[in-house]
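DM from R.C. (forwarded with permission)

"hey, sorry to bug you on a friday — could you get me a structure for this? deadline for the figure draft is monday and I only need the backbone to look sensible"
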Amino acid sequence: LYNRSTYYENSDATDKILGDIPNKASIVLTPTGYSEDKIGSAIPVDGNGDFTFARNSSATRVNQAGLIEASQSNDTPRLDYTTGEGAFLIEPQSTNLLLYSENFTLGVWQDEGGNQVVNTNVETSPSGTLTASKLTVSSGSINTRKLWYYFSTTIGLDYTYSVYIKAVDGQVNTGFISLATLDTHINQTFFTATDVWQRVVVTATANDTVTRALITGDANCQIFIWGAQLEQQSYATSYIPTVGSTVTRIADRANSSGNSDLFNDSEGVLYAEIASLAESVGNNKKFSISSGAPSNSILFSFRDTNNQIQVLVKSGGTNTVNSTPTISPAVTNFFKIAIKYKTDDFALFVNGTKVATDTSCAMPTGLNTLSFDRGDGGQDYIGKVKCVAVFKEALTDAELTQLTS
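My reply, with the result:
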């Protein structure tokens, strides 16, 4: 089905997804073929539906074996299996501000009065290597059971701290991680470690110019720890390893799929199976069909309000449709959306249900590209993508219900 890329993966997903999509589609992207600089479309097979891809840095992903893999080189798309099924991962730029993400005895990692013991390289980490440490916590009061990292912060900005944690057999395995000032926890996330690696995440808004990222176990706690990450934003992104300096992963960008022959200005459908990186990822994270500018476009975006999406139809710079439904369950789960556009006949389907209509709307003109942005390179989409498809005709309600169910 796709034989033009240098890499092919997850072929079963292609058959499963395409089996649910009518052969009327003019463009279909599924999590299968990709190569450097490109995400290959399954339809059409002549390459006109391929997306150009760019990320001017390396990046990690969770591979098919469930391991964190750090071999995704510059400009190579990431087919990520965090949820167990392959999906393209499109993330914003982010920096791990912690200088040592895997060695908790180096840099500015500190503990309270030397009461904590860290043994390095004693357990297989989520990357499949013997790089995880064991943290043994003292039996004293909570004020003596801290392992922390000081860092400079800007008051009023959000920071997200995350650590991978696993239980040591037969030991106390409970505690919490937190972001804190010298004396006060700003926010904390409690954990119970298990025999499976889990990523524990906490987010807080800085209220001082110096903040501590803490791991605090209950008395006599023993846990395996690995992969600490601190990001200046309100949610965690894929793991960014550091060894002695901060490291920045550049944003993923995918756009420029299609040409005017693959779109219909007067009617059509934009379909996607997607998930957000967080309940709220900031306003206006879009993907679109457009004329190369947002003034004539069909746009989808995640909103700044938790679990709310927005669909716009714009004609000549005017919003002729503006729909903002709230998704349940949360947008961090994969959901299916179909946007039917036709003069005076708009409909929005989510997970098998028609959630919005409009019978008085004009259509855009000059449609010629499908992009993970608003059409002109701005307001890049961020999230996970299992499938995107374009239809050159307005499908029936029955077809749209089936497509999104």
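R.C.: lifesaver. Confidence is low (pLDDT under 50) at residues 1-8, 13-18.
me: no worries. The CA atoms of residues 345 and 359 lie 5 Å apart.
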